[in-house]
Design a protein that fits this description.
Elements lengths: L1 E4 L5 E4 L4 E6 L3 E5 L4 E4 L3 H16 L12
Antiparallel strand pairs: 1-2, 3-4, 4-5
InterPro entries: SwrD-like
Keywords: Cell projection, Cilium, Flagellum
Organism: Leptospira biflexa serovar Patoc (strain Patoc 1 / ATCC 23582 / Paris)
């Protein structure tokens, strides 16, 4: 999840796994896989940086070992 801002400044959290495209037109428009669109204050580069940071945090989490019962 990444924290972004709508054009009027309202903060919201977006599920980064649902992003299909990000474009500047000139505002930054994020299109999700379900075709819903969000226009945000952040630049394309800022959104990409936030998504990469989020993905890095997710993939670098320590793996939790499952407990197995000894029989």
């Amino acid at each position: 999840m990444v924290i972004l801002h709508r054009l009027k400044g309202a903060e919201f959290v977006l599920n980064a796994d649902l992003i299909e495209t990000i474009e500047a037109n000139p505002d930054t428009i994020i299109t999700l896989v379900n075709e819903k669109k969000f226009i945000v204050l952040e630049s394309v580069a800022e959104v990409v940086e936030k998504v990469v940071s989020y993905q890095t945090r997710i993939h670098n989490l320590p793996q939790v070992k499952e407990k197995t019962e000894e029989t």
